[in-house]
User: Fold these one by one.
Assistant:
Number 1:
Amino acid sequence: MWTYILRRILQAIPTLLVISFLIFSLLYLTPGDPVELIMGTEDQAISPEQRAFIEAEWGLDKPFVVRYLNFVLKAATGDLGTSYATNKPVFSSIMERYPATLRLAGCAMILALLISLPLGILAAIKHNSFVDSMATALATVGVSLPKFWFGLILLIFFSLKLNWLPSTATVTTVSEAGIWPFFKAVIMPASSLALGMAATQTRMIRSSMLDVLNQDYVRYARSKGLKEKAVIYGHALKNALIPVITVIGGEIGGMMGGAVVTESIFSWPGIGRLAVNSISKRDYPMIQGITLIMCISYMFVNLMIDVIYAWVDPRIRLE
């Protein structure tokens, strides 16, 4: 197991290098004068002496290859550069916001599973019934609705019309004000993120359960006189979760991208909102760092999914 994990980590290094090169190259080719962005004087002339000083201090006078190699070497030690907008280290700025995004993503994933697991299992058990048709219809609607549109509808209805929930996230941790204020702050953005995930997972769980319920070992378990609940939850569900775990892993990674819009709508202070603010300010080092951290998070989730495979299904061996 540990050999497999180490090998996967080593395999991730070339991937990260390619990703970092693409990110660095795209931002390098993006229009705009970094010196003016650093000085905050886009509408004013900068003297040649000031420009030379800024370029030397920030390393902007060096060739592209040298700047990229310096970025990689510093990134390997946790130094992702300095923000043009705030003049603060990029890594520490991201880490200040990252826990808020993780809490939002975790709540969204829990909510999606609370909806999709019972709905998908019920649709499979009641195959070709009214319940199955309704679950399939709801899943189709959930996949079709854009996250930002659903988020705006929640905001207008529950915050502006009914005044039940806050329109902005004033509480992002339980320790700040307690469980109930945190729940009120997180339920709308988490629901907005969970909608598409719950719909996709419901369809996948239903399909996977239908396939497993027709297997010989399930029929054998029933022939022994086991109760239906024992057959469903003790034999069928665990094996049906293998493809579902794959979908969940991809959705967790994609959730980072979805959080960009959701956090902006609900003013959630995570890295998604930080990314939007950085793009509007053309803060290239911050955009670069956020994109790299998102890629690393996605790769880490994929590694964890592979490890979970072996726990869910003992027939799978990681070598």
Note: The radius of gyration is 24 Å.
Number 2:
Amino acid sequence: MGKFLFRLRMFMQGRYGADQLYYGLMALYLLLLVLNFAFARISPIGSRILNILSWIVLFYAFFRVFSRNIEKRSRENQKFMSLLGKAGSANVTNPFENMSFGNVPKPEAGKKYIKCPKCKATLRVPRQKGKHTVRCPRCDNRFQIRIFFGEKNKK
């Protein structure tokens, strides 16, 4: 479970996460699902329209959670909260900030984090395209890695 949470935390770093608008969109999604089931026998066309709308709402909610444009998502949440009349209580919270994951390295621009195959230590390497030989400082193991996305080698 710890490895999964570590990977989830690393994936969510730099992403917006859930906020009040996300929870509002999820409530709207559930409402649309209930209405969809209610109209399924009455009107098949209305049911299809509600089904499409519910998928659009769900897609937009998850798009906001995984978005890296934090400033824009925060403005959207502020507008939503002002429509509800709770503009003073609109604050962006990260649901993962209170979890303890041990010694998790902070991500840096232009860096990639890999695990040593022998001792499982987390290593930070430059994010440069190509094949590289990496030496683990903990166990002195040498191994090959290949980085597909990143800056080109400047030789």
Note: The first strand starts at residue 111 and ends at 115.
